[in-house]
Write a structure and sequence with these properties.
The structure holds three protein chains of three kinds.
Chain A: E1 30-39, E2 42-52, E3 57-61, H1 68-75, E4 85-93, E5 96-97, H2 105-111, E6 112-115, H3 126-136, H4 142-155, H5 159-162, H6 175-187, E7 193-197, H7 205-217, E8 223-227, H8 231-237, E9 240-247, E10 250-258, H9 259-264, H10 269-279
Parallel strand pairs in A: 2-10, 3-8, 3-9, 6-7, 7-8
Antiparallel strand pairs in A: 1-2, 1-4, 4-5, 9-10
Helix pairs in contact in A: 3-6, 4-6
Chain B: H1 11-48, H2 53-56, E1 60-61, E2 66-67, H3 70-101, H4 104-119, H5 122-140, H6 147-171, H7 175-183, H8 188-217, H9 220-225, H10 243-250, H11 256-287
Antiparallel strand pairs in B: 1-2
Chain C: H1 9-44, H2 50-54, E1 57-58, E2 63-64, H3 67-97, H4 103-118, H5 121-135, H6 142-166, H7 170-178, H8 183-212, H9 215-218, H10 238-248, H11 253-286
The chains are: A alpha/beta, B mainly alpha, C mainly alpha.
Bound molecules: adenosine-5'-triphosphate and magnesium ion.
């Protein structure tokens, strides 16, 4: 598999203390600076500054409630959907300013796919699950629909399982298959960024392994941000790791860097303890 | 910084949002219109007759300029109270039957029966009361069309609605409570009395209140069986006229102040219903159990 | 099983008494129902025929049939649904899906709907008479009657649709948004189909109410018993016909029974069909 397109000396994550972005991250695909998220008056994510390089896999780890999901939802502006949720700071996808109130969020979300923690295919047929987003984004010809749907289902290793029941409800599939339908649904629009929110957490080890292999196979083609509670998984698949932590209810970024560095020589005591805890 | 609810910028979405909001506003406007028109039509009566005289005049003789609504108000209240106190206990028992006493299949059938009953039009209940019940009461104690007939017909009419709502509130009692009780080896009735009924009481109360609302507002059934004599009844066998029946009887030929007084009685009904809604709302939180 | 030795007899006695009372109450309710229905069926069945259903009444309804009333009822219900369905669906979507914006407005709308739901039908009749018949100049007409009923069933429709929209898991909305689906697509392709059962339930309830309604129609659609030729014609609904025969036409009872049988039959048919469809739907959704 290809390795990162713009990988410089293994540096894929960087942390900064100012909102101006240093020159060496100009090429970063996703770039957040001093990002804050509020739910009402409650600060959920405080001052997160980090960058993800193009074509790499970045893992976000941390205890429950430290704002991992909130961070992901900033990147595709799903925060818009949440009542009383407010975001401040700087966030860029390439050169697109994600904080701008005037950007086309539909186009943005087409570029940024997302898979959620719980498998949630729409209660429609497998075909409709995949065709709905395609049609919405202008693919109308049946041949093209069919071809793209088949390609993506093959990619997630589901084609042989479902090719005879594309017209059946997606809810009749097993949990692992459903999650792969969700993954296919996110991939079918050919996004450039894939956000994965604990995609394996409700799956058995076998399904989980299949999804993990799939993610690895996407390296280089897509920029992937994956939230995971399995440190071992993060270590296996990620190019870089960001450790979030919650303090007094607000999440913050403890440390980020290349996977090797985070696991072998963590700089921050919290990181060390967290990794130790998981090892022990 | 961006904040909540940036609408997606597609053109059809703006259109959708606009159309939908228009719908909501229109729906809200309906109530406004109802109130505005009732008040506007009732205004002459309130000005020429005055609020006080609507309750203190010697009688209801609109042609002679006498506008006392009190007998009709009494009629409405007595019929309602009677109907609800007959229907509520039967409804609770029905609900208990479906939830705890009946075998599952029987409960299904019984529930379907109640649902069908709930769908029978009030004019049919009234007709049945007129041809079956009124003669029976007439044999017992003439004349027949009476407060009692109204109470019974209304009770039968509101029973299905209350029973269905009450069953829903019994069904909403968390299963864990029941399992807990069963694990303690409690008997059925002991469990119902000590656990189910207290837990469901807010729902039961709300259902009964809804029954009150329906009974108050019913026109056809009472119009057909109550005799429609304007008087404060001295016994359950005396004929009465309710506010609703009064409107239905007289609006066709009423004009001027008379018509206006009928609209005033409509407002009175509206206010009573509003009062019920407010009271039910205010009482409900304190009655709520668990969660 | 109850352990006879260790349990005192009083609770057991109580238990039995309550059970007895429950069964008695259920017996009473069932008897009343059978009595009512058998009365209508037995007295009405002799009169009902195709002739009765299709022809116009004669001799103030003592003879002839109920054709015009069925047509008038259908038109009134049609107008009622034509007005209330789009309005109700739109309002429910706003209340359930656009909750964040116009919080004040939606709260206000919701509160007025609560009050509207409790307003007696005769008060709607007064309003319809003053507003549709006189103010808008529609006179005693099917249009006035239908729109009056639309105001009446609107809260039902909105509440049941809103509730089923709210019951749709948030995840569907989030993942629809994450796929870049527009609100239009989300609403029309995803939310409305999912909320359809609740909407249908409200619709059936509304149709039932509208067909059963009498008081509000007495002085909005009138009681002319000819076949209506336009929506601006006055027309007599079936329920109004029953009332008229029972109260104002001596000797009209047999036709009143037959009309009641037809009306109740229609309502039962709607009710049974809808619950059948709901059952099928549930089966379908689960597989
Ligand atoms: N819609 C919301 N309204 C209010 N508070 C919220 C909302 N969503 C999340 N929060 C709060 O924001 C904080 C961060 O939540 P978030 O879901 O981002 O955590 P997380 O790291 O994804 O946790 P988990 O690992 O359990 O998924 C939490 O304290 C949570 O309570
Ligand atoms: Mg999360």
């Amino acid at each position: 598999m290809k390795v990162g397109l713009v990988q410089e000396e293994g540096r894929t994550w960087s942390s900064y203390t100012t909102s101006s972005l240093p020159s060496d991250t100009r090429d970063a695909h996703i770039c957040a600076a001093q990002l804050n998220v509020w739910y009402g008056d409650k600060l959920a994510l405080h001052d997160v500054t980090l960058a993800v390089d193009r074509g790499t896999i970045a893992a976000v780890v941390g205890p429950s409630g430290c704002g991992k999901t909130s961070f992901l939802m900033c990147i595709n502006r799903l925060t818009d959907m949440i009542p009383r949720c407010r975001v401040s700071g700087a966030l860029h996808l390439d050169h697109l300013n994600l904080m701008s109130p005037t950007i086309d969020v539909l186009a943005l979300r087409r570029r940024v796919g997302m898979v959620f923690q719980k498998p949630n295919p729409f209660p429609l047929s497998v075909w409709d699950n995949l065709a709905l987003p395609l049609k919405e984004h202008g693919v109308r010809k049946r041949d093209e629909l069919r071809q793209r749907i088949e390609t993506v289902l093959r990619e997630v290793g589901l084609w042989n399982d479902v090719k005879d029941r594309l017209g059946h409800s997606a809810l009749a599939l097993s949990g692992g298959q459903q999650q792969r339908v969700c993954l296919a649904r996110a991939l079918v629009l050919s996004p450039e960024v894939l956000l994965l929110d604990e995609p394996c957490s409700s799956l058995d080890p076998l399904s989980s392994g299949m999804i993990e292999d799939l993610i690895v196979s996407l390296r280089g083609r897509l920029t992937i941000v994956i939230v995971t509670h399995h440190l071992a998984q993060a270590r296996r698949i990620a190019d870089s790791v960001a450790v979030f932590w919650a303090q007094a209810g607000a999440g913050w970024l403890v440390e980020s860097g290349p996977t090797q560095q985070i696991f072998d020589s963590p700089q921050h005591p919290i990181t060390a303890a967290y990794i130790q805890g998981h090892r022990g | 910084m961006f904040s909540i609810n940036t609408l997606s910028p597609s053109r059809s979405d703006y259109l959708l949002a606009t159309v939908l909001r228009l719908c909501a506003v229109l729906s809200g406007v309906v109530l406004l219109l109802v109130v505005v028109f009732l008040v506007q039509e009732a205004f002459p009566a309130l000005r020429h007759v005055g609020l006080v005289r609507l309750f203190t005049d010697d009688s209801w003789h609109p042609t002679e300029g006498l506008y006392n609504l009190l007998p009709m108000l009494w009629g409405t209240m007595l019929v309602t109270i009677g109907a609800v106190s007959l229907a509520a206990p039967l409804a609770i028992l029905s609900a208990m039957f479906c939830q705890f006493y009946a075998p599952v299949s029987l409960a299904r059938w019984y529930r379907r029966l109640i649902e069908l009953l709930a769908g029978i039009p009030s004019v049919v209940y009234g007709f049945w009361g007129l041809v079956v019940l009124v003669p029976m009461i007439g044999n017992l104690h003439p004349p027949g069309p009476s407060l009692l007939a109204g109470m019974v017909v209304l009770a039968i009419m509101i029973l299905p609605t209350i029973a269905l709502l009450m069953e829903a509130s019994l069904a909403a009692v968390p299963q864990e409570y029941l399992h807990g009780a069963l694990a303690l080896g409690l008997r059925r009735w002991t469990m119902i009395r000590n656990i189910v009924l207290p837990a469901a009481r807010s729902g039961l109360f709300a259902s009964a209140v809804l029954g009150v609302g329906r009974a108050l507002g019913e026109t056809m059934a009472v119009l057909m069986v109550c005799g429609n004599v304007v008087q404060i009844p001295h016994s359950v066998f005396a004929p009465v006229r309710t506010l609703t029946a009064n409107i239905a009887l007289e609006i066709a030929y009423a004009f001027g102040t008379h018509r206006s007084a009928l609209f005033a009685s409509g407002i009175l009904l509206l206010l009573i219903v509003l009062g019920i809604v407010v009271v039910a709302d205010a009482v409900k939180p304190r009655w709520t159990y668990g969660e | 099983m109850v352990n006879k030795r260790s349990s005192p007899w009083l609770p057991l006695f109580q238990e039995r008494c309550v059970a007895l009372v429950v069964w008695l109450a259920v017996g009473l309710v069932t008897t009343l129902f059978l009595w009512l229905v058998s009365e209508i069926v037995l007295q009405g069945i002799g009169v009902v025929s195709w002739e009765f259903i299709l022809s116009a009444p004669q001799n103030a309804g003592r003879d002839g049939g109920i054709g015009p009333m069925l047509v008038a009822t259908a038109l009134i219900v049609g107008v009622c649904l034509g007005v209330s369905v789009p309005l109700g669906l739109g309002t429910a979507i706003v209340l359930a899906e656009y909750t964040n914006e116009n919080r004040r407005l939606s709260q206000w709308v919701r509160r007025s709907l609560d009050v509207l739901a409790g307003v007696p039908s005769i008060v709607f009749g007064l309003f319809g008479h003053a507003f549709f018949c006189l103010f808008l100049g529609l006179g005693f007409s099917l249009l006035s009657g239908g729109m009056t009923l639309a105001c009446m069933v609107l809260p039902l429709l909105i509440r049941s649709t809103e509730e089923s929209l709210r019951a749709i898991p948030r995840e569907y909305r989030l993942s629809a948004a994450a796929l870049g689906l527009s609100r239009w697509t989300t609403v029309t392709r995803l939310l409305i189909p999912l909320a359809l059962p609740g909407f249908a339930a409200g619709l059936i309830l509304g149709v039932g109410r509208a067909m059963a309604e009498t008081a509000a129609l007495l002085f909005t659609s009138g009681y002319v018993d000819r076949f209506p030729t336009s929506l601006l014609d006055s027309g007599r609904a079936l329920s109004v016909h029953i009332w008229d025969l029972a109260m104002n036409v001596p000797g009209g009872n047999s036709h009143a029974y037959a009309s009641a049988l037809v009306l109740v039959g229609l309502l039962f048919a709607i009710n049974l069909t809808s619950s059948f469809i709901a059952d099928q739907w549930k089966k379908h959704a689960l597989t």
